[in-house]
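Journal club prep — side note

Before the paper discussion, L.F. wants everyone to see what a predicted structure for a comparable chain looks like in token form. Sequence:
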Amino acid sequence: MAKTLYSMGTMSAVEAWREIRSIRAELTGSLGTILRADRSRRDEFHMALEQGQQQFAAAPLIGYESRALNLFYGLSQAGRAIAAGSKSLGSAAGEQWQGSGHGIKFSVGLQKGLWDAPINLQTNHRDLFSRVSLATDSPHKFDSITFGALVNQLVDYTMAFREPEGYPRPLHDVRVYGASTSFPVDIEVAVPGSVAGRRMNAGEVGALFGKYPALAPFSASPVGDEIRWSHNEGYCLVTVPSRESFLEETHGTLILKGSTVYRGSNVLLPCAAAGCGPLRPLMAWWLVLYALSMLARYTPSKWMETLSLAQSPVASKVEFILDTAMEAVPELLVDEMERLRT
């Protein structure tokens, strides 16, 4: 049962896969043009999505012990379909559309624990991760990112586990209501870490905002070395000088340029790494599920420890991730399929 506006706006897995099947049955726009012109791409698109849906259908029927395998390989096959249908790939674009190899590597030794374990990118011109990243316009030319940083980019995770974990997190509901607003205007922005009475100075907040491309052009409204805080706990005021910094949404609502729609909600996502922008939400899930599937597949004993509620402080969090992926990923696939049509 939905308990928040966010959860009321989300799509169930059944609804998402039905929408994907409808897209497959009626190929329109750029997606239809590409697939009708190339039989091999069309066949890969349909079969890979069929396989992906079957893997996701199997996932809730089995326990956490094996679910990561179904979820990642289901997403991987759906990614092959995205690559097959993308105008950013293929001979006309100068990029191979078929993917071969993961292009990423996760060290399953967990010397410093799961949250601090790095996922290293080893992309080239053929691996599947870079193919799907190009198709979804997501960064793929950075060295590594830790598992903890990745899960803190998942909106669902940060809403369920609200205690800050030391990583930049999605920021919600940064908007202005009323298209007739005069500028400059102050907007409220949640400041992760400014909880329980802790106040951050302007330098600290500025460094934090620098990790969000949508906020980087602005600064918190200062009073001396301090910043102005909203009457709403944990929110500061940011001055936006002109309307050009916004996109107009429905009913005159203005949202910041650089916002990302995640399951029906506008959010500001942090950069994946220095020198690159935020990951597309689907690709953040890709890396998270890849890491968990590698751990489950190649080190079953460590995976057993990770899932033990009696031994592992992150066990419940990992369970949550595996539960949520079954609903979130299909909805994100719908979003990417719709983008392929444009």
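L.F.'s comment for the group: The CA atoms of residues 194 and 200 lie 6 Å apart. Keep this in mind when we get to the figures.
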